[in-house]
Amino acid sequence: MRLGEKITVGILGMGVVGTGVAKILLNQSQLLSERTGKNFHLKTVVDLDWERDRGVDLAGVKTTTNFDELVADPEIEIVVETIGGIEPACSMVRQALAAGKHVVTANKALIALKGEALFKEAKGNGVELRFEASVGGGIPIIKSLREGLVANKIKSMYGIINGTSNYILTRMHQEGMGFDAALQEAQAKGFAEADPTLDVGGGDAAHKLTILASLAAGGFVDFNAIPVEGITELTTLDINFAKSFGYVIKLLAIYRSDGEKLDLRVHPTLVPGDHLLAAVNNELNAIFVTGDYVGDTMFYGPGAGQLPTASAIVSDLADLSHLLAAGSEVAVTPRIKPEKKVSLFTIKEIANRFYLRLFTLDQPGILTQIAGALGQYGISISSVVQLETHGAGDYVPIVLLTHEASEQAMFKAIAAIKEFPFVRPDILRLRLFK
Ligand code: HSE
What we know:
alpha/beta, Rossmann fold, Dihydrodipicolinate Reductase, domain 2, Alpha-Beta Plaits, 3 domains, six-stranded parallel β-sheet, 14 helices, binds L-homoserine
């Protein structure tokens, strides 16, 4: 498994990220060669569309629409997969692994949903599957968890790991912009997924959390077991209420371990304004990681975009070249052990502080009845605000912050509050950072 001085690479998918990888390999070849001792030769790039100008000079690189040309070429040692999504990416990655090629991917959905089978395939073929770019764009969080923090059990991770959502929330918070307009801006800047519901619905962050949690826990986490809520129900009213209480709303991917079971969730969270995560704005990502020996660390940087993501992919190429040149057996032993069972708390076992926003008719005795419903389920209120008017017809907004209460109690209390004839059904429940 020794790689020679020249390492021949093919790219599968010349979209935004694949083009970025080509740019770096072609423009930084001298630097990469000095730093790795290897000459990365970009031989073949595969895409269905060769009409559009990608802003990179591919003279000397074979451009083709035929994946077989890449996978059947014995000279190509590493395939970079930048198609995204599950199919056809999954089948092509499998074929590349089966053909004895190492694969480097930025595809978070693929690793989160098909990782277990693909790592098995890679191991069976004595090749590597690398995925640094799948989480946090240009932030080297995978390598940090795998190597830099190897001495630690990870106690908690709080990640802002969807650039699009963070961009939207920042624009709403700082400019008072509406949700739709902010999403359009994020799309125009190229941060959003082809299907932006993955971004704003929390699915993309949950894919990335699945990967981080699997690495931290050392066993495969079931993506489908993670409770996920997105940011689509948030209004500028909520952003402003949160601000008035001293919080910033962020879409957080949460990993908390009690040493045995994991509490994994993705949801919008009220983060105290003085926390480091509150200052992570626009498309930037950050992962706040606490290890049992290292303490608190934070990894911060561009979580989306062409060159940051490509930078992470190239780091995998360099890493792979060193590892394989050394003939290390460790190379094909994934840090995530298929036999290790990872147990998750169910959301009902979790307790949180809550933010509750509802619209009610402005009549005597209403607050008492709402407080009574919460009290009935043992939920204690810590703050209440009611605005006089919000242009919402006869309804006025009321916001309550609670002390810590179980998710189950809050679920039941909201069901009871929804029964009141004076309450509009669009009740929003958010959690506070803890
Ligand atoms: N759509 C993703 C995001 C791209 O906004 O973070 C990077 O994975």
